[in-house]
Amino acid sequence: MSVSQPVLAVTVFGRDYQFKVPQGQQTQLQQLADSLNEKLSVLHSQSPLSSRDQLLVLTTLNTLLELSQLQQQSAQAQRSISNLLQQISGQLKPA
């Protein structure tokens, strides 16, 4: 007997959606939907004549740009840590 996944109901920019979500991720996904609504509201106030689809696409692109920048920063931080660990390792080796 399989356990069914919980269903999360969210409203995004005035439309209701229901998604099956993995157990324990309902709160996180609700918070993401809330964040998306905030971004859409800000963009809508800046561009009130834009269509719903334009606002959704622009918000998606802006969010993906933010994600890409964070991924680049994370990769740079990982390279820096790796370099530091190599330096420390080199200094700890007996002569």
TrEMBL record:
Pfam families found in the cross-reference section: ZapA
Is the keyword Coiled coil in the record?
yes
Q: Where in the cell is it found?
A: Cytoplasm
Q: Which SUPFAM superfamilies is this protein grouped with?
A: Cell division protein ZapA-like
Share an example GO biological-process annotation for this protein: cell division
Q: Which UniProt keywords apply?
A: Cell cycle, Cell division, Coiled coil, Cytoplasm, Septation
Give the record's subunit note.
Homodimer. Interacts with FtsZ.
The record's comment on protein family reads: Belongs to the ZapA family. Type 1 subfamily.
Its annotated function is as follows: Activator of cell division through the inhibition of FtsZ GTPase activity, therefore promoting FtsZ assembly into bundles of protofilaments necessary for the formation of the division Z ring. It is recruited early at mid-cell but it is not essential for cell division.
- Protein's name in the database: Cell division protein ZapA
- Its source organism is Rheinheimera muenzenbergensis
